[in-house]
């Protein structure tokens, strides 16, 4: 495959193409290559994606495309790749099995395989099947050297050298059984948490709402649990997230809210709620839609120990000056290219094949 500089330039062009869709009304930029062929077609693919999966709303699709458009800048790509030696890669065929919980959720793996000089075989989730194949065609148009290096399949994956698979704890056992003999990255369930101290500003708590409600809480980087000091008063939290209240007018979310609330009430669970979000005291991490779990802690040392012990269940931790590697309020769904899922360096894995 071509050298690294050409591959970087190809993804920069893809980023520029995506940047056109960063508003509710996409606007054609005459300087973008291939618009006459791909612009209207991608608008149609976005419509299909929304029709195929009701969680993929216009707002969430726009957010995804904006995030990736910004990430695929020349400066970001070069900063990410600056710590790796990529030129001497012997191309291998890498299979990616993608989840479908949020739009383009497997794009970072796809990018990592191609930017490192390997070939990719993609098996998509039926929940997110419209966008990536079309973007791959755009990539092949602006960088013809990618032709023949990208394959999509609905069949059983065969003839591959390594695999990256993302799924649930249950599917991970299946993946390990079938792919354990090959070099692999197999990802399981993870959730994200926020640690509150009671000293957060209104701005912090409003931003935390973005971490909770973006993608309806379906992402592994979505905050599904709060750790709070003993006897924490949630009034300020509820007041701050009130701005997200219109979410209850969206049918799928509302149905989940009503169902889970009925289950909690029939089970005589104590919950706190504000009409569109429920808080339930629970030691678990994977909260249902429209619910956030919470757990009290007594000391900073205790919560740090808890986070360390449960590190394999946590994707990221939102906090303010509390723990190493913490994420700022409101930023969980805007990872950098070098923020790897599960803390596993995908690019390092690929370069050692």
From TrEMBL:
Domain of life: Bacteria
Keywords: NADP
Pfam families according to UniProt: LuxC (PF05893)
Protein name: Acyl-CoA reductase
Organism: Galbibacter pacificus
């Amino acid at each position: 495959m071509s050298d690294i500089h050409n591959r970087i330039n190809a993804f920069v062009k893809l980023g520029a193409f995506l940047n056109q869709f960063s508003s509710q009304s996409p606007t054609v930029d005459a300087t973008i290559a291939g618009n006459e062929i791909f612009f209207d077609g991608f608008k149609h693919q976005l419509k299909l994606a929304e029709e195929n999966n009701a969680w993929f709303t216009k707002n969430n699709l726009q957010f995804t495309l904006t995030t990736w458009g910004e990430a695929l800048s020349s400066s970001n790509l070069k900063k990410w790749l600056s710590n790796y030696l990529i030129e001497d890669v012997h191309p291998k065929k890498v299979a990616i099995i993608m989840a479908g919980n949020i739009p383009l959720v497997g794009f970072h793996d796809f990018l990592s395989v191609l930017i490192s000089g390997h070939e990719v075989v993609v098996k998509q989730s039926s929940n997110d099947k419209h966008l990536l194949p079309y973007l791959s065609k755009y990539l092949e148009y602006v960088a013809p050297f990618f032709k023949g290096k990208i394959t999509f399949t609905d069949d059983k994956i065969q003839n591959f050298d390594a695999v990256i698979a993302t799924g649930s704890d249950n599917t991970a056992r299946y993946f390990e059984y079938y792919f354990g003999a090959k070099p692999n990255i197999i990802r399981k369930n993870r959730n994200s948490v926020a640690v509150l101290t009671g000293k957060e500003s209104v701005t912090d708590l409003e931003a935390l709402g973005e971490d909770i409600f973006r993608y309806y809480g379906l992402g592994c980087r979505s905050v599904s649990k709060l750790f709070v000091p003993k006897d924490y008063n949630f009034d300020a939290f509820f007041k701050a997230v009130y701005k997200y209240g219109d979410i209850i007018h969206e049918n799928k979310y509302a149905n989940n809210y009503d169902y889970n609330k009925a289950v909690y009430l029939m089970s005589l669970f104590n919950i706190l709620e504000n009409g569109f979000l429920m808080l339930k005291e629970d030691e678990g991490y994977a909260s249902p839609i429209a619910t956030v779990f919470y757990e009290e802690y007594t000391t900073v040392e205790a919560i740090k120990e808890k986070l360390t012990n449960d590190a394999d269940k946590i994707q990221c931790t939102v906090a303010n000056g509390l723990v190493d590697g913490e994420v700022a309020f409101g930023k969980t769904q805007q990872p950098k290219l070098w923020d790897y899922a599960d803390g596993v360096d995908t690019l390092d894995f690929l370069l050692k094949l």
